[in-house]
Amino acid sequence: MDSLPILPFGDKSPKIDSKAYISPQATIVGNVEISANASVWPGAVIRGDAASVKIGEGTCIQDSVVIHAHSEENPAIIGDLSIIGTASVIHGVYIGDNVNIGEGCVIFDGATLGEGVMLTPGSIVPANVVIPPRSLNSGVPASQVRELTREEAELQAARAKVIMQVFQKLQRWQTSV
Known about the structure:
The chain is built from one helix and 20 strands. β19 and β20 form a beta hairpin.
């Protein structure tokens, strides 16, 4: 769709898989790569101006999420089948596969969230903090509440797959940029 706000920055242009679903109200700038079946919802801003941003397959970037990377040392990398909740702010982090970030979370530069992490709404992850795989974390600053069971971790991936299937059925926001 030519009307989508998908913009180059310098010599870098977004690379969006033809099977990704991008809202016409989202803004994507610069060195950004969005994989197949990922969805980017209205009001989301993904900026790859200072460093690269990569969104994995089937990952859901919900309404009004901001993703940015401040430096090449800390690109923003988000794995497959993860859900980034509404109004969250992500700065230069590594987020593994099957992660569920609640609404309104803030995650700062250099933080790492392992595979299958669940972060409760409103949590803040300080810079350079490492959150271990398959753990429930909450608070300001976020701290581990408990380990997640295998079933809970699998449920997170299942939720992302449901969202992905909804967009596949709707065939909306599809772009071939």
